[in-house]
Amino acid sequence: MAALALVAAGCGGDGTEAPAATGSSSAPDVVPHPDRLVLHLDQNRILRLGRTITVQVLDDAEGPVTVARAEVSSDRFDPVTWTGEETFEQQLQLELALPPTRCGSGSDADVTLTYRIGGGPWVRSTSTATDLYGSVGQLMVRDCAEHTFDEAARLELGRHEVVGTGRGSRFLLPVGIRATGERPDVAFAGFESTVLFTVAGTPGLFPDVEPLRLEAGATYEEVLEITPSRCDAHALAEDKVGTLFPVHLLAPGLPEDASFHLPIPDEVRGDLRAFFAPHCGI
After folding, report:
1. Alpha-carbon distance 194 to 196, whole Å?
2. Total domain count for the chain?
3. N or C: which end of the chain has fewer CB within 10 A?
4. Quick one: which of 141, 151, 142, 152 has its CA closest to 212?
5. pLDDT at site 267
6. Residue 33 to residue 113: CA distance in whole angstroms
7. CB contact at 8 A, 149 and 212
8. Nearest Cα to Cα of residue 259 among 201, 194, 191
9. Three-class SS of residue 236?
């Protein structure tokens, strides 16, 4: 026991051990955020199918920086935290899942980093992470649009099927919308095609459709006829967002082009992608 006590006494205390977030019992000091570390939020195209976003940490000075924790907070979503231990020079991207967001304005967030510069002590500082390209803000608009639409109506997908063969084939997806009557100030404004698939055979395409006010008793029944927008193997192989069909709506407080993604189950997305090759003859 005495030997163990001596070993424990000789560990730590020099500011080099990992902070409390990764195992140490000591809390790092809070310091002003250094100008050399610039923070951004982003959601690149590869991640659009889910809710993964990145916190980018940029360093314009020389020497390594090690990050062990990033606490992200905003009045538009519940706090979320990344933990680990990453050493970098110039640029680091931390991936985390954005919680469901609330309607509002602004898409920047506060980020509290736990880090060390070179061989220095672990410290904590807080700064604003700007939404670099507005992609996180777009995700927030989709959340708000979906929440608003859910208050106004129930959206149901019917059983899909493929009819025809070759270039004459169509992927048919029935969609039903039934207003709840709780939000008569909301209107359904149509669907939209994607870079991979075209929605045809329906009058309900944004922005040309006459908006349907979702008052009590209002219903919308449509069979979406979906075909590939282009027929080359690279289009499917390189696609990341081709099955994300926008559902547009008009509502107070939302942009005129506000939309959310048609809630297609993964199984249906798989069948839609499988339809591509036989339709195109690839």
Report:
1. 5
2. 2
3. N
4. 152
5. 95
6. 9
7. no
8. 191
9. helix
Strands 123-131, 29-30: pairing kind: parallel
pLDDT of residue 18: 61
Shared domain for 46 and 167, answered yes or no, is no
**155, 180, 149, 174: which is closest to 249 by C-alpha?**
149
Q: Which CATH number covers residue 108?
A: 2.60.40
CA distance linking residue 56 with residue 194, whole number of Å: 28
Instruction: Look at residue 97 and tell me if it is in a domain.
Output: yes
What domain range includes position 233?
A: 141-280
CA angle 92, 240, 51 (to 5 degrees): 55
pLDDT of 6 strictly over 60: no
Q: What is the DSSP letter of 104?
A: -
**Judgement on whether residues 172 and 196 belong to the same structural domain of the protein:** yes
- Which two structure tokens, joined as six digits, stand for 46? 């590869």
Predicted pLDDT at 27: 87
Same domain, 274 and 163: yes
